[in-house]
Amino acid sequence: xxxxxxxxxxxxxxxxxxxxxxxxxxxxxxxxxxxxxxxxxxxxxxxxxxxxxxxxxxxxxxxxxxxxxxxxxxxxxxxxxxxxxxxxxxxxxxxxxxxxxxxxxxxxxxxxxxxxxxxxxxxxxxxxxxxxxxxxxxxxxxxxxxxxxxxxxxxxxxxxxxxxxxxxxxxxxxxxxxxxxxxxxxxxxxxxxxxxxxxxxxxxxxxxxxxxxxxxxxxxxxxxxxxxxxxxxxxxxxxxxxxxxxxxxxxxxxxxx
Length: 257
Prior knowledge:
Blueprint: H1 2-22, H2 48-65, H3 67-73, H4 77-91, H5 99-113, H6 115-130, H7 136-154, H8 157-166, H9 180-220, H10 227-241, H11 244-255
Helix pairs in contact: 4-5, 4-9, 6-7, 7-9, 8-9, 9-10
């Protein structure tokens, strides 16, 4: 009975509070709280400059949306990320280092390796365009030239010939005649092949350690003990003794011509 009386009192208090709030007279001169109003209209324009500006903004947003793909496919990021992934798998350290650390390391190594290319793009394309010395088409052409040169230096002729053949390009007098749409896929598969070759070399010393540990445990009759548990400390010791991260970064940098 006591609980029911408390509940009834709470209900009565809430009803009286609501009645009190709605019974307060409204001030006619009170200022209403302004609410934002947003309108998006699509109409016609009589000024051609407005249309050109809108198209430029649309193209800029498209380029920004494709920036991750451009970073992955047209720079050294692919090779570095694959090699670092092979390194972690060879060590058999599961998720150590984590993916965020490996991707961050690959990103900054990419920026370090691509710095001369980015500097050339800034000097030949960005700064002249901002100064008004060249047009937008010339700026895009000048920005693409250093990237094409970098990709061609890393691309194998066999991979390049594969896509040229399927693109039905008959006469090529120089590398300038090769379309960028042919260079990019050729560059990607060349980078993957190089990354897999480096990964194979990385696996060899750690594979030897695994074989030695497995044979030793089998000779001792310790078949129930996982060899990975015993070989992991020796892998880490070998990696530390040879200063693995320094050696790996040095090898990645030297692999780019």
